[in-house]
Amino acid sequence: MGCGLFYARLISAVIALVVALLFFLYLFRRVRREEESRGTSIDFCSLLKKSLPLCGVSLLVFSTSKISILIYSLFATEENVGYYSVAVNTAILINVALGCVNSMVAPKFAELHARMDYSSLFSVGIKTTRLICIATIPLTIVLLLFGKILLEILYGMDFSVAYFPMVILAIGNCLNAIAGPNDIFLQMTGDQGRLNKMMWIGFAASLVFYVPFIYWWGSIGAALAVLVGQCVWNYLAHLFILKKYKNSLMLFYSSK
Fold first, then answer.
1. Which terminus of the chain has fewer Cβ atoms in its 10 Å neighbourhood, N or C?
2. Is 152 helix (H, G, I), strand (E, B) or coil?
């Protein structure tokens, strides 16, 4: 079993978290001194109240798949964990376009929300969804059709066993793209707290299924558990946006 690998990854994650926390405290003190020199002040509690949900969202966005590797390493050999890690890292390539487009559109979401121009807000949102899908859907199809060959060429013949977990994770990332930039939308419109709760619910759903799915299907089960979590939080975000704004960012769904 890969318990040693699990603890090694866990310790490295804790160290990274501590370093990030120390860096945050350093920056906060520096900014607070600058603000006090100008005659203004920053309320630390108020800052944490607004920023912690964003921190939780970012943590889950970037670590969900990696956490699945940690959990899978408790039940599998280091060799099989290595195969699954390759599947995770290959499928993550689909998220490159998603991250790039989201980083560009986030300020526009915030601007339109501040102006309460919701018609333009959803117009930009659905265009963003289409742009993301143009980039991600073809790449997903390539992985579906030629993924096994690519794995064998890039990593070796033995890594073809990573094909099915990679396909499942790629489909999950593609569904995430089709659902639209719900996470960035909610963060830029003041609902980061609700998004944080939705994503933790999705993460909890994944945790519930990890053990039985891994026991039944191995690395394929680990990938399916990740997929379940993604679908849960995206569905909750879609319902929340639909209920609040009577509109949606989902591809083929928006009324705009």
1. N
2. helix
Structure-token pair, residue 59 = 């943590």
CB 164 within 8 A of CB 91: no
Find all residues with CB under 8 Å of 250, minimum gap 6, and list them: 129, 178, 179, 180, 238
Instruction: List the domain boundaries for the chain.
Output: 43-245
**Any alpha helices (H) in 156-255, and if so which ranges?**
163-179, 182-188, 192-217, 219-245
Looking at residue 231, its amino acid is: C
d(CA 248, CA 246): 7
192 with 48: CB under 8 angstroms?
no
For the chain, residues with pLDDT lower than 50 are 1-2, 256
- Give the pLDDT of residue 189: 93
Dist. CA 180–CA 113, nearest whole Å:
17
Q: Are 209 and 224 in contact (CB under 8 A)?
A: yes
The one-letter amino acid at 213: F
CA distance 40 to 79: 56
Question: Rounded distance, CA 85 to CA 93, Å?
Answer: 13
For the record, the structure tokens of 248 come out as 């949606």
Q: Is 248 left (phi over 0), alpha (psi -120 to 50) or beta?
A: beta
9 burial (CB, 10 Å; 0-12 / 13-18 / 19+) is middle
195 closest CA partner among 248, 245, 238? 238
What's phi and psi for 163, nearest 5 deg? Answer: -60, -50
The Cα-based distances of 203 to 10, 87, 124, 226 in angstroms read 17, 20, 29, 8
Whole-number mean pLDDT of the chain? Answer: 86
pTM over 0.85: no
